[in-house]
Specification:
homodimer, 435 residues, mainly beta, Sulfite Oxidase, Chain A, domain 2, Immunoglobulin-like, 2 domains, five-stranded mixed β-sheet, five-stranded antiparallel β-sheet, 7 helices, 26 strands, 28% strand
């Protein structure tokens, strides 16, 4: 039951861009069509401040607190973490699943719950006993040293909010035709967390590094012994050995008991289950930096060590595969991030990029962390194409898909960061489109 | 195995205050006693960057990803949420437990995992079906309106990091003798989260409020129908109807599917399972604002509606009931917060308040949110008394316990915010002391 007589009139002071985009400071008393319903006034409530209703939970005491508070039973099954085309045959063949996505459509802030952080491993999640696990720092150092989890916790620590994104995120958009996958399936290989740990520079200060130290080669304790090479300048900057995520020990799927965290770099370099850092004068040139994680360009040469993540944004609501069930007020919201620093601006369009409105950015805007953007939108039932376009503090702006392909071709699968377009039909159905 | 020959020498550039407090930018190559151990150099590792070890998790593939990533089996049992003097008889008598603490000693950042947020209910946790739950705003309004969870999600939302503290937190320190409870049991009724929701001012803009609206009376849908009265000025400021916590739907123990969140006010005013907001010209004068949640002063008169939380801090590591197992480098760390705004300064002392050093504050410092502070400390084995003292941006500084009692007496149980003292013995044992 809508309460409004003339629900689709935009007050001139509310106009932000074409297609119904409103200013952030909108006036709700100006008869915008909302989803509130009229309540019985006066008589039913009288001067009594007590609400109405006789549901079971009002009549009987509730349950006790638990050692670890769980989600509602109405929420547990509603989260989609795996892309929907994992057929039973596929799962049977692989026997195990080493990838999961963050359900971006279920998030409204910037923090990803640790249990819903995207996951990617190359040989499954190891079940590590922390009492048997050590990190060794060796190679071109003054003194090689070992650290277990208890030792690390006595060092000076830092806590930082950072995004992590797999460089293969969104790669399906390089296909010739738009996929009908959900926003989670297309873009869900990105998450945001508060990471606490010891700066690697602190530990390298203690081990000392030789003058010919140019790279560190970092290795995990999983069965795949995942390893990557990182330039020493980055290693001495903001890289940390993370031991906590969102206020508790890192979960096994995120690298328990300790992981490397490399802010702003492609996700796979943040080695989980970290057990060895070898200081070297050269990179390892491992499979993960030769046959994988390189980017083939139109001239058939490949970029190597393309580690820094680009400026990027995506509208997470409304998005494929949701639908708009009525005309009226909606909030367009999503996430923006840059591997180089802070997000400076996010613009939103609902007419396929013809006109743009500045979205509101939630403070505090943090370097190399997800930034939440929002724009109110009054949908009048016309077809629309929703887009967001982010710019970071260094002026790096997201390209269109056409611009990305013109510059880099389609023969690569990493570092796709172009503008996402969601098409809205007159029936309210939302589809992934190329625009 | 310690690697250092002369581990307890403090370089003059490292000195910050008496008793071994060091500057944040300490020099680890200056032979401070750390918990690192020497690793085998060269020969064992050679020019090979591969770490050593043949643990099971290196030899066999790990497990698949889960729909919701869980904690390590080595962590699940280690978190203490309930105060340790809940005897079996007590539990049998009550039959249920309506209080849990945040394990502050397990946190190193500022975010509390939703499942470890402190809990307090007056009649247990209701099991609410969100499809049957509505919030009604009524009373002195232009038009009474109802909102379900789906309706709220279309409104303009905000995401903010806020602490929540029960006003009864730390009250045991008003006893004549120091308790031997853990830091969690004494101070664990405080937590920090990212809360996402709709500003109440947005909804009151839509319902309209009459000129004689002075208070809102807010009620929960639990069996206790918990309700509190809030001044209209605060209601129109930063109060939100929260629908998400830390990136997912609020858990039942925190008010699923929606709760009131009142930044900086005593915790019980942030009504969980919110179902009614009645706009009124007077407060309800309910049991929760007359016989409870008032503060008896030395003149035997009680403060009423003492809603704003004071400036406060506590050292969470090292703290009772931990112990220092060796001399050498430690990190002193804890949390500071103010119900009025941002934390401006935290000082740390290890000599019972004779000398103080400024602790490092982790950015971003956010208004009405936990702020993490840290100081490196070289313990030489002498007795020590660890203290922290916070000041907010309005100059409100924590008092000593003696100052608190001189001003407010001991005949109250809410709003105790004095400086906490942890005594360290020569054996490394840490005790709660009055100093």
């Amino acid at each position: 039951m809508s309460k409004n007589k003339n629900p689709l009139t935009i007050d001139a002071t509310n106009h932000a861009a074409e297609g119904g985009l409103l200013n952030r400071r909108l006036f709700l008393n100006s008869a915008l069509a909302t989803t509130a319903t009229l309540a019985t006034a006066g008589a039913a409530y009288g001067q009594d401040f007590i609400g109405e209703g006789q549901e079971d939970w009002l009549l009987y005491p509730g349950t006790s607190t638990l050692p670890y508070g769980d989600r509602s039973r109405f929420e547990v099954e509603s989260v989609q973490r795996f892309i929907h085309d994992y057929s039973e045959e596929f799962l049977a063949l692989r026997m195990s699943t080493y990838v999961s996505r963050t359900p971006l459509d279920h998030m409204l802030g910037t923090i990803t719950p640790s249990g819903l952080h995207f996951e990617r491993s190359h040989q499954g999640i190891p079940d590590i006993d922390p009492n048997q696990h050590e990190l060794v720092i060796h190679g071109k150092v003054r003194q090689p040293l070992k650290y277990d989890i208890e030792a690390l916790e006595n060092y000076p620590t830092v806590s930082k909010f950072y995004f992590l994104e797999c460089s293969g995120n969104s790669a399906v958009l390089l296909n010739d035709e738009p996929t009908d996958q959900s926003v989670n399936a297309i873009h869900g290989l990105v998450s945001g967390s508060e990471w606490t740990g010891v700066l690697l520079s602190t530990l390298l200060d203690e081990t000392g590094v030789g003058p010919d130290a140019k790279w560190i080669i970092c290795e995990g304790a999983d069965n795949g012994m995942m390893h990557r090479s990182i330039p020493i300048d980055k290693a001495l900057d903001d890289v940390m050995i993370a031991i906590r995520q969102n206020g508790e020990r890192i979960r096994p799927s995120q690298g328990y008991p300790m992981r490397l965290f490399i802010p702003g770099f492609e996700g796979n370099t943040s080695i989980k289950w970290l057990r060895s850092i070898y200081v070297s004068d050269r990179p390892a040139m491992s499979i993960q930096e030769t046959s994988k994680y390189t980017d083939m360009m139109p001239d058939n040469k490949s970029l190597q060590f393309s580690l820094l993540m680009d400026t990027k944004s995506v509208i997470t609501r409304p998005a494929n595969t949701m639908s708009l069930k009525r005309k009226g007020l909606y909030e367009i919201t999503g996430l923006a991030w840059s591997g180089k620093g802070k997000i400076a601006r996010v613009e939103v369009s609902v007419d396929g990029g013809k006109t743009w409105a500045d979205a509101a950015l939630e403070e505090p805007i943090q370097s190399k962390m997800l930034t939440r953007f929002r724009s109110p939108w009054l949908w009048d039932g016309s077809p629309a194409i929703l887009q967001s376009r982010a710019t970071d503090e260094f002026g790096r702006m997201q390209p269109t898909r056409d611009e990305h392909i013109a510059a880099r071709g389609q023969n690569h699968i990493y570092h796709y960061s172009a503008i996402q377009s969601w098409g809205v039909g007159t029936d309210g159905e939302i589809k992934n489109v190329f625009a």
